Sequence to fold (503 residues):
Amino acid sequence: MKQWRWLYPLTVALSCLVLVIFFNAPSRGSGTLRVVTEPTFPPFEMQGEQGQLEGFDIDLMKALAEEAGLVAQFQSLPFDGIVTALQSQQADAAISGMTITAERAQTVSFSRPYFKSSLAIAVREGNDAITSFEDLEGKKIAVQIGTTGAKQAAKIPGAQVFSFDSISFALQELANGKVDAVVNDSPVTLYAMKRANLQGLKIAAELEAQEYYGIAFPLNSPNIELINQALETLIADGTYREIYQRWFAGEPPELPLVAPALSEAEAGEGSTFNIVKLIPSLLLGSIITLQITAVSVLLGMIGGVLIAIARTSRYKILRIFAKWYVDFFRGTPLLVQIFMIYFGLPALFQQIGFPFSFNRFVAAVLSLGMNAAAYLSEIIRGGLESVEPGQLEAAESLGMSPTKAMTYVVFPQAFRRMLPPLGNEFITLLKDTSLVAVIGFEELFRRGQLAVATSYRAFEIYAVVALMYLVLNLLSSRFFSFLERQMNPVARAKKAMAREQTT
Ligand code: ARG
Fold:
């Protein structure tokens, strides 16, 4: 009996695993429609107080699915990943305030239009210099990545465009005073200004061109017909109007059967994707990535040395602080730290009456550097502690001052031992720089993401991006091996001997 005891925990673990898989597996049986959405776009899609999805799109999609005899199963995705998810059949449909454009229609199929919208420029109150799109020339503009707003902004001559994963970050940037304007769908900007905790913004202008939202499907999906019919029924029987009035005031506008963008398909906007044309931009991205890495490593080294010293200090308070620092920065996700520093700190200081804001580069290297310092301090401490105390004693008994003994005897030996973990840390940091893309920093990964957002060629582009990271890391690991060889007295002596023999 006793020898079977281990079976019990094993059974429990296996059942948990089965449960997890069961609850996560998208049930693909007939009758369910896997619908993706990017739920930070109120009032179209957002997270309710209990974490449930809600909004105009969500209500409409549920009603449409029901009418078509299907069950909508929602999943969240970043907006710039939606078209590729449909393209690769990872979802059956997408409802996400997505404008029907001729460009997108080459990769996905759209339902008939279900909402009429337009783009608007938001600025801070008191900014009267911007009253039209022409006034945005040479200005700083924040947008959501992959949206029609981003595309419009990119057309403005001399404008500096910063792209964020969610429109709420872009609006926060504007409120924080870091950009001059946000270009976004006007119902969403209006809603954010009214409901969200964003004061001091106003709409400066609206673009004349109408945009129509459609539900997107994989090309030629059989569900398009079903959903189109359902939409027709809901419009006719008043359900559409009822849902519309839950979220918007007034009567719903007339909707065309085909979005004008498709019937008058902009000629010449066809896909002329060529990965070679992207290389210069990606190379520039790698240089920026290297720059952030270098500055962060430098900051991290300085911080790491200070913390390592504090950790071995005579003063208890310093030791406690250093321990706490390491625990905090190692124990919380780097992504959370980046958000806290870049979006959190300025908002906090604004509340207590000290408005200030970070430069993007400073925020990026500060968060990466502070995080790296925690890891580096442990590497440095470990290295220093690995040198036997006898070495220091021996050096001091030869008449060296403690500082001299540290510099010439202990540190060189410790440094040699620190090199392999330092190399690891460098490579980790280089890869982690991709996380600062979330604050709109255009390093290598973000540049790739931006290219995917307009061309929908996820595989090719990310493969090139990955290759570039790989090359950077192979080069840096070569450099660290070289350093290790240089620091190894035996290898160096052998080399010197070999040189002597040849001469
Ligand atoms: N209508 C715009 C577009 O299609 C923005 C949509 C953004 N939607 C969202 N859920 N974030 O590009």
